[in-house]
Design a protein that fits this description.
By secondary structure, the protein is of the alpha+beta class. The chain has 26 helices and 31 strands. It has an 8-stranded mixed β-sheet with strand order 6-5-9-3-2-12-15-14, with no helix packed on it. A hairpin with a 2-residue loop joins strand 10 and strand 11. It is globular. Bound molecules: O-methyl-L-tyrosine (0A1) and zinc ion. It is an enzyme of class 3 (hydrolase).
């Protein structure tokens, strides 16, 4: 406690029940008044009433109508404690009034302003910046809200009760924790819609945006309706209010927020038109709309007991949105995309100084734990549970979960218990996935004798901060066997590994089969398999599991690039193996596009480090560029044919099928650009009718270092569009030749459009730089220094975003002593900054390790 660490072991229930909350807001930019009336029932005689509150000016406080005297309470920087002696023993009402200044709130947490609009963000602990309250997720209450303000649209959670000029009242009947509170007020217009639930209730839908943006909401609205229907059919969950509002806001720290009945979105993940959004933006918008909607049941109706349980709602909800996208689009392609992201970001986190369990047991600043481990690994764990109990078992467990825990604030233990009760299985060992950090390594060896194939697995999980010893995990390993002619002789079977070392036999096989192991990426582990190129090429050509088919090609590419980074030439066998994939018109274009995508430079650095080498960012960059050129040379004819054949005629549609064709076409373009000097890309840029092609062409030209005219033209055309300009900032840095990155970053930071207090714009520039692997890690240290300068500058303005962006430094220990020393100096410099936020100082402390 002394150093501000919050521990799971210290959890205690709140000694009061809040049975009703009534809030009155009198909005004014510099001085908003918030009156709160809380109905409280004491649950522990003699306990003081401790309320969280930060940056609040207390105007008055009264219990049962009687003003409190100065001796009745203690007011500090972090809250208000009313002494037990001043509290009735029976249920009572506490009324407070405070003043806050939304206009001055640049941290974008609590009540703040974005372009004249009032907006809130309360997860995780923003409500305490609005009023004095037990700001913890296990305190759930119905809310009644009255908003007074001279603005046309006044919104809060729940159902509308009444409204008039300058005021509106809302009532949310569903008990909720304060982090789900939301208020929005502004000059907004609605893109309307409606939905009839399975049981026949009419729900009004609205997407609220600033005037001028209403024609960019159609896709999000349709995605919302698909999500609502899917939750009914896949999970039996109906929406539970008369109205569902979504608001798009330009200044937002994260992607979106699931406030009850009033989701608030970063406008980037709502607004889309063919001219301004790419195929991948459309796909993400659909996924995020679904994610926030799905939280209505997994997060809101059933919430978390405390913030250590964050992955209870986030892992499950990510798993649900992934399943939804897999059904709306191409399932295997979605799975591959998810695994690419998991390995690139979560495995990276798990192998560095920020590694933590999906359910951590201590933190200083909870906002630092909205991580890929909590979200994406959390989702993988749910996927493993489903694989272990089967589809029907999973549905039974989820039915039980909703039945047993509706209206409650739960723990990971509650969650595992429903699976145990529904399936009769013991999940004690499985729980290690939740409470231990680190990515298990799974080594497999094969033995063939007397018509029997034996697979022997060995697992080990490396130490992570604070966890030196790791117990064996319960790992579902999906395996199939293929005959040498490509027929499947043993269909996918899930082997359950529970020991450190374990063998599994397949008997009665006439000829030695080829094993396809960890199909569909059945567990988030690093599979170590000594496999020759010929066997990988065989699986790339024949595996009946699409994930492993892609994986075989990916493993070939990775091995080839790792050798090239150490001076070898391109592997002819890999180049050969790509041929049949390119030529196979029966394969989905989106799948073929993924097969043409080489592992990223950061992933290669990760792989080299894992192999005990010191990655050299310049050599990795050169290897990747050389392999792209070699692929283009070897397959020029096939790629040209693809480029021509995959053109999508007619008006743009964001659906998976045309998007897959465009993805394949752009993958071919990126390769062909290495040969044609950018001629095709330049032509495509000139004629493109949609952002996917325009941006794909621009990116290819930037990578060639030959995009001056196009970059300028793009800026001229889109300078008035904030979302498109974010792309402009990002792409120039992410894709430019690495030697130019740090200097260009400095120049772009001087651009009058670099509005650094806007999180999207800040992320575009800094995220672009850190995505340029060799540029960020330039041996001069210029990238590191520039980046650290800006973290220091942003921290006092927006600590949350500064802290999140500091994760760019998490890989520093992979590199040579020179680079390590440079990063360490920057981390020390940040740490030594006076007045550093709790957010960034916790991150820097962990990063320094
Ligand atoms: N619960 C949201 C994510 C979110 C978390 C924190 C925020 O502010 C600090 C905002 C949003 C989700 O999972 O979508
Ligand atoms: Zn979420």
């Amino acid at each position: 406690m002394m150093d501000g660490t919050i521990r799971l072991a210290d959890y205690r229930p709140y000694p009061f029940e809040v049975t009703q909350v009534a809030l009155l807001f009198r909005l004014a930019p510099g001085a908003t008044r918030v009156r709160a009336r809380l109905d409280l029932v004491p649950r522990q005689p003699g306990a003081p009433l401790r309320l969280d509150g930060e940056e609040l000016r207390l105007i008055s406080a009264a219990i049962d109508g009687e003003a409190l005297g100065g001796n009745d309470y203690l007011l500090t920087e972090t809250g208000l404690t009313i002494h037990a002696a001043a509290l009735p023993e029976a249920p009572f009402t506490l009324e407070t009034e405070v003043e806050i200044a939304p206009e001055a709130n640049t941290a974008l947490e609590g009540l703040y302003m974005s372009k004249g609009m009032y907006c809130t963000q309360c997860e995780a602990e923003g409500f305490r910046k609005i009023t004095f309250y037990p700001d913890r997720p296990d305190v759930m209450a119905p809310f009644q809200v009255r908003i007074e303000g001279d603005l046309p649209v006044l919104l809060s959670n729940g159902n509308p009760v009444a409204q008039g000029p300058g005021w509106a009242e809302w009532h949310d009947p569903w008990p909720k924790p304060a982090y789900l509170f939301a208020l929005v007020a502004g000059d907004l217009v609605a893109h309307p819609g409606s939905f009839t639930t399975a049981s026949g209730r009419e729900v009004t839908l609205n997407i609220w945006v600033r005037p001028g943006d209403e024609d960019r909401c159609g896709f999000a609205m349709e995605a919302l309706k698909r999500s609502m229907r899917w939750d009914e059919t896949a999970y039996g969950r109906e929406y539970d209010l008369d109205i569902f509002n979504i608001v798009a806001v330009d200044d937002f720290n994260m992607g979106a927020m699931e406030n009850k009945g009033l989701n608030i979105f970063n406008s980037k993940w709502v607004l889309a038109s063919p001219e301004t959004a790419t195929d991948s933006d459309f796909e993400r918008i659909e996924a995020i709309i679904a994610h926030e909607y799905f939280h209505n049941w997994t997060g809101n109706r059933i919430t978390c007991r405390d913030w250590f349980q964050l992955c209870l709602k986030e892992g499950l909800t990510v798993f649900r949105d992934q399943s939804f996208t897999a059904e709306m689009r191409l399932g295997p392609v979605k799975r591959i995309e998810d695994v690419i992201l998991l390995r690139a970001r979560q495995f990276r986190e798990d192998q560095g100084p920020l590694a933590h369990p999906p359910r951590p047991d201590h933190y200083k600043e909870i906002n630092n734990f909205y991580t890929v481990t909590v979200y994406e690994k959390g989702a993988e764990i749910v996927g493993m549970l489903k694989r272990l109990v089967g589809d029907a078992g999973y549905r039974a467990a989820l039915d039980l979960y909703f039945d047993r825990h509706d209206g409650q604030a739960c723990t990971i233990e509650d969650w595992l218990k429903v699976f145990e009760d529904a399936s009769g299985r013991d999940l004690a060992q499985f729980k290690h996935w939740y409470v231990e950090a680190g990515t298990p390594r799974l080594r497999v060896s094969e033995d063939w004798a007397e018509e029997r194939l034996t697979l022997t697995f060995e697992q080990s999980t490396p130490p992570s901060p604070g966890q030196m010893e790791k117990a064996p995990r319960h790992i579902p390993i999906a395996v199939g066997l293929l005959s040498p002619n490509g027929d499947e002789v043993v269909p996918t079977t899930v082997l359950e590994m529970t020991e450190a070392r374990q063998s599994f036999c397949f008997e009665g096989l006439a000829t030695r089969p080829v094993a396809s192991i960890l199909r569909d990426f059945s567990a988030p582990v690093i599979l170590e398999r000594a496999q020759n190129g010929a066997e990988r090429a065989f699986l790339l050509a024949h595996d009946t599991d699409p994930f492993n088919r892609w994986e075989a090609g990916n493993a070939l590419a990775r091995a080839c690039l790792m050798e090239m980074a150490e001076g070898a030439g391109p592997d002819g066998a890999y180049l050969d193996a790509l041929g049949p994939v390119l030529a196979d018109a029966a394969l989905d274009p989106a799948f073929r596009a993924l097969c043409l995508r080489l592992p990223s430079e950061d992933e290669l650095a990760q792989a080299l480090h894992a192999a005990g080498k010191i990655p050299d960012p310049d050599a990795i960059h050169a290897a990747r560029a050389a392999l792209m050129r070699a692929i283009a040379q070897r397959h020029e004819a096939a790629l040209s044919e693809i480029y021509a054949a995959m053109a999508v005629p007619g008006p743009y549609q964001p659906d998976a099928e045309p998007a897959g064709r465009r993805a394949l076409r752009l993958a071919a373009l990126a390769l062909l650009s290495k040969l044609d000097g950018g001629a095709r890309a330049r032509a495509l840029f000139a004629e493109a009718q949609n952002m996917t092609e325009s941006f794909g062409a621009l990116s290819a030209l930037i990578a060639l270092g030959a995009a001056e005219a196009e970059t300028a033209a793009f800026r001229t055309r889109w300078q008035g569009d904030r979302l498109v300009m974010d792309k402009w900032f990002m792409a120039q840095l992410a894709y430019c030749p690495p030697g130019l990155a740090a200097g260009l970053a400095r120049d772009l930071a001087e651009d009058p459009l670099f509005d650094w207090k806007n999180p999207n714009r800040f992320r575009a520039l800094m995220g672009g730089l850190s995505a340029n692997h060799a540029g960020f890690h330039d041996r001069s240290g210029a990238g590191y220094q520039f980046y650290a300068d800006w973290l220091i500058r942003l921290d006092p303005v927006n600590p949350q975003t500064a802290a999140r962006m500091s994760t760019a430094f998490e890989t520093w220990r992979r590199f040579d002593p020179g680079r390590q020393a440079l990063v360490r100096d920057e981390l020390d410099r940040i740490a030594a900054t006076t007045g550093l936020s709790r957010d960034l100082s916790e991150m820097v402390q962990r990063l320094r390790g």
